[in-house]
Amino acid sequence: MPFAATPEPLCLNGLTIAPGERVLTRLVISRLPSGTVIDIPVHVFRSTEPGPTVLLMAGMHGDEVNGIEIIRRMIRRDMLRPLRGTIIAIPILNIYGFLNFSREVPDGKDVNRSFPGNPRGSLASRVAHRFMREIMPLIDYGIDFHTGGAARANIPQIRCLLHQDAETDELADAFGAPFTLHAGLRPGSLRETAMQEGRRIIVYETGESLRLDEEGIDLGIAGTLRVLHHLDMLPETALPARPTVVCMRSTWLRAKYAGLFRSLVKLGQYIEKGQVFGSVADPYGENSVRLESPVAGYIIGLNHMPVVNQGDALVHVGRTDTTPSRTDLAAPFDEKPTKPTEVETEEDEEAGEEEAK
């Protein structure tokens, strides 16, 4: 992507930020019923040399703290001083959810299903609109940090639209997460809207909501530094310990029965077709059912909640095979089947976690 020979002033939130400046500004979104102002802190780090503008953002869902901690540590450790271009860091977008340990804003809507937003719409829509007005026009690339939800943990992974856009593929490859998952664009999501605007955003997932995942945080920081180096914005950094495993498809294995779920697998483990991955038992000691996987692949998501209902997502399997199976026949957005099934294929951005979060 070509850039101007000399960096131009950047206008954000009514401020003019010159090349070489570091600025903290706050986007005022609204007020709580108590009158307390809700604003979003935005850190801007500018080089004196021209280059791309990269967004690092977390807290789209307020209960997802790992991304917040990744950006916080990078700011605290003074790791975001670009050699060229600009870095915009937003540790928490959904301040409402953060204050209430919640995925949503108080009106119950999901900010990541509300883009491009509306200045007269719901609270989530207003947050999305302010982002689109102030931030989106400035950026070229971005990393959006997330975690699993509702006691479901994700192994560190990049989610993006693979093999359809060369720049997106390069960002995912540069990040070098343990797993890279092909994920389609969800209507109303930040990724979909950014793609329509000509911006490229990848999603990093690790851990579960309201829990810090130290390994995932470290891998997230390292991957972010590699992306910034790939864009010639930071010096060379350490390569990933091992090549990423690319999963072009994924399948959620769901509970056929309600009861107490006991997992026999771990995140990152490879399971064979027909392998027992856990059991569901009634709480009275009368019945127990072994659960066998109908597909082979890597465990990229795992339910840590022992009490499950029929149809609950238990294990997320990332698949490297290319042969279609009966599990691929399910509609990709059918997240609430009319009757319980053992498996369901999810190839959207959050791979079946919408009902879980």
From TrEMBL:
SUPFAM superfamilies named in the record: Zn-dependent exopeptidases (SSF53187)
Positions of the Succinylglutamate desuccinylase/Aspartoacylase catalytic domain: 50-231
Cofactor entry: Zn(2+)
Transferase listed as a keyword: no
InterPro entries: AstE_AspA_cat, N-alpha-Ac-DABA-like, N-alpha-Ac-DABA_deacetylase
Origin organism lineage: Bacteria, Pseudomonadati, Bacteroidota, Cytophagia, Cytophagales
Residue stretches spanning the membrane: none
A molecular-function term among this protein's GO annotations: hydrolase activity, acting on carbon-nitrogen (but not peptide) bonds, in linear amides
Region (Disordered): 318-357
Gene3D superfamilies listed in its UniProt record: Zn peptidases (3.40.630.10)
Name of the protein: Succinylglutamate desuccinylase/aspartoacylase family protein
Basic and acidic residues: bias regions: 333-342
Keywords of the record: Hydrolase, Metal-binding, Zinc
Alphabetical list of Pfam families matching this protein: AstE_AspA_cat
Amino acid composition bias (Acidic residues), ranges on this chain: 343-357
Zinc as UniProt keyword: yes
